[in-house]
Design a protein that fits this description.
Pfam families: XMAP215_CLASP_TOG. GO terms for molecular function: microtubule plus end polymerase; microtubule plus-end binding. One of its GO terms (biological process) is mitotic spindle elongation. The protein is built from 36 helices and no strands. About 19% of the residues have low confidence. The radius of gyration is 36 Å and the shape is globular. It has 670 residues and is mainly alpha-helical. Among the domains are: 218 residues, Leucine-rich Repeat Variant (Alpha Horseshoe), CATH 1.25.10.10; 98 residues, Leucine-rich Repeat Variant, CATH 1.25.10.10; 81 residues, no CATH class; 59 residues, no CATH class.
Length: 670
């Protein structure tokens, strides 16, 4: 009996020969050798990757191997290539992923299908996002074979589930849901349901607007499932990313190296987007407007104007229609259009604020509630695209309108803005707003008086009572009671808006001005002990004397006599703080005493210390031409100073701010 023939030893052949061999076992041998080679490479730039990264067609041939066993091993080989070559392998995605869609994701071999999904996920890591990968998978949803469609749906689900909606924009996937749920194959629809569940766990109820094209029974089943998920604690925000892209992994390693190891051990928790509309793809609505749009708005037939408004996208034209159109149906249609436009564009619509708010407020003179409600809803949508400090200049002029309905409607809108704003009223704007509201408390129209009291109470809840004390003191008692009642009932989203702003000054007052401070604190004692040296200290009272001069000489003389006594009494607390340094107050300071002030650092040393202690982004931000950027930088720096105050040299910080911001011309940033 003869021995069985020995299997051919393919290891003696080169990898290139084995890859091109007709025998599938030779190709498997090549794939196994490459897997070991890739796993033992020294870095992502190892020369072993180069022949394959520069030849995507070879990789395509590997993952589409005609033999099922060899194909599974071939896909595993490419998985290891992408895994260990990292971002360098991203350029092969556009050739390999379509091949996976066509030949692997619908494979009947579980191993091949799982390896193909893993390869898809590896490409998401390498490309630092899933946009390209998703774009290559979506055409597979139109495949003739249901198993291919189901495999593509599973791959999409895994991308969303493992990376979240930050690494992969969900809009293209959401748009594909109707096609998946309309498929005749049960397995495809089942995978689509699981994909929808994953999306819901990230996006929450916002996903429901994307399900409008599904069958009613499907929508009902999904909503019931969503409710059950919420009850079971598996609803919105419960699903977190379990994998990171290469860039995110590098950032996590950097955080760990800088001492943030505990936070970097697991992928960072992803914040759930506040509004799913941010994932919607931009649409050029202007291109869809009819050619006779402007002509229709100016038509003498109100039905033509109404039809144009329903299709409108031009904010100024809509505002003009709201402001001037004689037919209330057109006004309501234009208002609904304005609301939808603002909600659709979100923040970018804010640049049209100045052109649309004033005309809309003026039209609040209408007495019919359905008209004013439509305009009010549009105004609220516009406010959602901007901030309270930005929109206040557009609101305040309408508070002085001669029409009582306009005043009342404007006050109602202002009240809603104050209650819902997440940005407080800046201190410079508190006075003009409060003065306007205080004057309206005495308005002859009761509706305006009531709304003004409500607004002033809400403003007080936001900024606190202290900034409004001067205004409140001048009000009649009955008005004070109404404002206080409104204050008690008011709810706001940002309290004490004026409090955080003054927080930065304490570090500014702390620089070690040892000599200057001692000299300044010695003034009261010198004024009390040496009348001959009182002259420099009499300058502030002298200004008061100048104001009182018209009343008569005796009055001025009386002020002159009383001022030396008044000045020391006003400064008595200061010598108590300077008791520890009495020796330095021996000489009375002259008018230019502060000129002798000395820093402990030279200008050059102060600049060097500032460069080391203060993050570079603050320097860049304070030098930006946009005042909003400078203001945001100052607010960020305030928080940084609060957290690092103990380790900072106050002189360095003050001199840095003096160099960057003392010449600030914008009142908010200043």
């Amino acid at each position: 009996m003869s021995d069985p023939p020995q299997e051919e030893d393919f290891s003696i052949l080169s990898i290139a020969d084995r890859l091109a061999h007709k025998n599938w076992k030779a190709r498997v041998s090549a794939y196994e050798s490459l897997i070991k080679t890739f796993q033992t490479t020294a870095s992502e730039t190892d020369p072993a990757f180069k022949p394959y990264l520069n030849n995507s067609d070879t990789l395509k041939k590997i993952v589409t191997d005609a033999n099922a066993v060899a194909q599974e091993k071939g896909v595993e080989c490419v998985v290891n290539l992408v895994k260990f070559a990292g971002e360098n392998a991203a350029k092969t995605r556009e050739v390999v992923v379509p091949a996976l869609v066509e030949k692997c994701l619908g494979s009947t071999r579980a191993g091949t299908k799982n390896q193909a999904i893993e390869l898809v996920l590896q490409y998401v890591e390498a490309e630092n996002g899933g946009t390209g990968v998703v774009g290559d998978i979506l055409p597979g949803l139109a495949a003739k074979q249901p198993k291919t469609v189901a495999g593509c749906t599973t791959a999409l689900k895994e991308i969303i589930r493992q990376f979240g909606v930050s690494a992969t924009a969900p809009a293209p996937v959401l748009k594909a849901l109707p096609k998946i749920f309309a498929h005749t194959d049960k397995a495809v629809r089942a995978e689509g349901t699981q994909l929808t569940y994953s999306l819901y766990q990230y996006l929450g109820p916002g996903i429901e607007s994307w399900l409008a094209d599904l069958k009613p029974v499907q929508v009902k089943e999904l909503k019931e499932a969503f409710e059950a998920m919420e009850k079971d604690g598996k609803g919105k925000g419960t699903l977190k990313p379990v994998r990171m892209t290469k860039a995110a992994a590098r950032e996590a390693e950097l955080n760990e190296a800088n001492g943030g190891g505990e936070e970097a051990e697991s992928p960072p928790e992803e914040e759930v987007p506040p509004d799913p509309r941010m994932f919607a793809e931009p649409v050029d609505v202007v291109a869809k407007l009819p050619s006779n749009f402007q002509a229709s708005l100016g038509s003498s037939k109100w039905k033509d104007r109404k039809e144009a408004s329903e299709l409108g996208d031009v904010a100024k034209s809509l505002a003009a229609c709201i402001h001037k159109d004689a037919n209330i149906n057109c006004v309501m249609a234009a208002s609904n259009c304005m609301e939808a436009l603002a909600k659709g564009m979100m923040a970018p619509f804010g640049r049209f604020r100045e052109a649309v708010v004033a005309p809309m407020l003026e039209r609040l003179k209408e007495r019919k509630a359905n008209v004013t409600d439509a305009i009010g809803a549009a105004l609220d949508a516009v406010f959602a695209t901007t901030t309270l400090p930005d929109i206040l200049p557009d609101i305040l002029p309408s508070l002085g309108s001669k029409n009582p309905q306009v005043k009342e409607g404007t006050l109602k809108f202002l009240g809603r803005c104050l209650a819902t704003s997440t940005t407080p009223v800046p201190p410079p704007q508190v006075k003009p707003v409060s003065e306007s509201l205080a004057s309206l408390l005495e308005d002859s129209f009761e509706g305006a008086r009531n709304e003004a009291a409500a607004c002033l109470g809400t403003l007080m809840k936001m900024v606190g009572e202290r900034p409004l004390n001067a205004i409140m003191d001048g009000l009649a008692d009955v008005r004070k009671v109404k404002v206080k009642e409104a204050y008690e009932k008011a709810t706001v989203k940002c309290k004490a808006g004026g409090a955080p702003k003054p927080a930065p000054p304490p570090p500014v007052k702390e620089p070690p001005k040892k000599k200057g401070t001692a000299v300044k604190k010695s003034e009261p004692s010198e004024e009390a002990s040496s009348p001959a040296e009182d002259k420099p200290a009499k300058k502030p009272p002298a200004r008061l004397m100048a104001k009182k001069a018209p009343n008569g000489t005796s009055s001025a003389a009386g002020d002159t006599a009383s001022s030396p006594a008044a000045a020391p009494s006003a400064k008595k607390p200061l010598p108590a703080a300077a008791v520890a340094k009495p020796a330095k107050g021996a000489a009375a300071p002259g008018p230019g005493a502060l000129d002798s002030f000395k820093f402990k650092h030279t200008p050059e040393d102060a600049d060097l210390l500032a460069a080391e202690a203060i993050p570079e982004n603050f320097t860049v931000g304070l030098s930006d031409a946009n005042w909003k950027t400078r203001l945001a930088t100052l607010e960020e720096m305030t928080g940084w100073v609060d957290g690092a105050a103990e380790d900072l040299d106050s002189e360095v910080v003050v001199r840095f701010l003096a160099k960057k911001g003392w010449g600030e011309k914008n009142f908010q940033a200043r």
